[in-house]
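We modelled the chain as a single entity of 108 amino acids. Its sequence is:
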Amino acid sequence: MLLIRAIVRPEKKDEVLLELSRAGFHAATVVDVVGRGKQKGIKIGGIIYDEIPKALIMMAIRDEDKDDVVRIVLKTAKTSEKGAYGDGKIFVSPMEEAYTISSGAKGL
């Protein structure tokens, strides 16, 4: 099992979730977050904004689904053909166990 954490622009969140769902990946947790990347925020006039709004999409998936999920997020979260600074990041981590609270069942 893997845990996917995708940080995307807020305006791309719904589109990413829709494409994931169309591909059969319906389960996700979404959190509104703020942060900055390598560019250290953005400067508008004399003001530096270093807490940029983003959306964090978290998904527990089977190992064999990783390439499909990553491909969908990469394709859908880009703001242009080439992409742009601030389009986001995807983190993939191993996940040892998962449990459903209502039933106590182990696994996805």
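As a brief sanity check on the tokenised model: Residues 66-77 form the longest helix (12 residues). The two ends are 8 Å apart (CA to CA).
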